[in-house]
Design brief:
Helix content: 40-55%
Structural class: alpha/beta
Largest sheet: 7 strands, parallel
Order of helices and strands: EHEHEHEHEHEEHEEHEHHE
Radius of gyration: 17 Å
Number of strands: 11
Oligomer: single chain
Strand content: 15-25%
Shape: globular
Strand order of the largest sheet: 3-2-1-4-5-6-10
């Protein structure tokens, strides 16, 4: 039976490119997102045995439903790629939209990581990649405060779980992908643009998969951003937050 990879957020961007790479490596892919037409298009491109699961992971019940639908399909890789951002002043941004983002970026990642890592630990094999952001390695982002906070949660949770598995001698690997700007639909959805050059989704996905199978815990697919993330710890928090706010503007 072919190894199976579950990819959420597979309808576009990094998730879609990771699905293409994993399929080329011989994985059977289960593609998950809200947009059925996009998923079916990708499934047709990838070929036979690819499965589509339409779900809205901002809803807890659909996170549990997704797990129940795929748990018996020899899953060896989970890519938690569903997520989005939102630009705007915290005093003016829409609370309902922010809560939807928290449910997608944090709650869904937490639920699926929890459920699958327990299965993987029992089998003593498997990989989980949580798509975070370089934002999760910084000290907060004015005008995208909730997004930055959500990605910090993902990066911190992933690092802690990875350490627990390592101390237990487990062969299960958990990692967080922390890219900077990537050329995807993210900016359009978030309503922002960044003053930093974006990398392609294809390059990001290649570095992500290589890092995941290489056993890295934090994957930053850009030499420049690696230096920036390392240097961030040397800058006073107040100054770093101010600097971060300047690199993004309303789209």
């Amino acid at each position: 039976m072919a190894r199976t990879a579950v990819i959420t957020g597979a309808s576009s961007g990094i998730g879609r490119e990771i699905a293409r790479i994993l399929y080329a490596k011989g994985f059977r892919c289960i593609l998950c997102a809200r947009r059925e037409d996009r998923l079916k298009e990708l499934a047709q491109e990838l070929g036979e045995n690819t499965r589509v699961v339409v779900c809205d992971l901002s809803k807890r019940e659909e996170c549990f439903s997704l797990y129940e639908q795929v748990k018996d399909e020899n899953v060896g890789v989970l890519i938690n790629g569903a997520g989005f951002g939102l630009f705007g002043k915290f005093t003016q941004s829409e609370l309902g939209r922010e809560l939807e983002m928290i449910d997608t970026n944090i709650t869904a990642v937490h639920i699926l990581t929890k459920l699958f890592v327990k299965d993987f630990a029992q089998k003593d094999r498997g990989y989980i990649m949580n798509i975070a952001s370089s934002a999760g390695l910084m000290s907060g982002g004015p005008y995208m405060s909730t997004y930055y906070a959500s990605k910090a949660y993902v990066a911190d949770l992933t690092s802690a779980v990875a350490r627990e598995l390592e101390e237990a001698g487990s062969k299960v690997k958990v990692c967080a992908l922390c890219p900077g700007p990537v050329d995807t639909e993210f900016n359009d959805v978030a309503g922002t643009k960044f003053g930093v050059k974006a990398i392609s989704a294809e390059q990001c996905a290649r570095d992500a998969v290589k890092g995941m199978f290489g056993g890295k815990t934090i994957i930053v697919p850009s030499a420049t951003l690696k230096l920036a993330a390392a240097g961030a710890h040397l800058v006073p928090r107040k100054l770093l937050v101010a600097m971060t706010g300047r690199i993004q503007t309303e789209n």
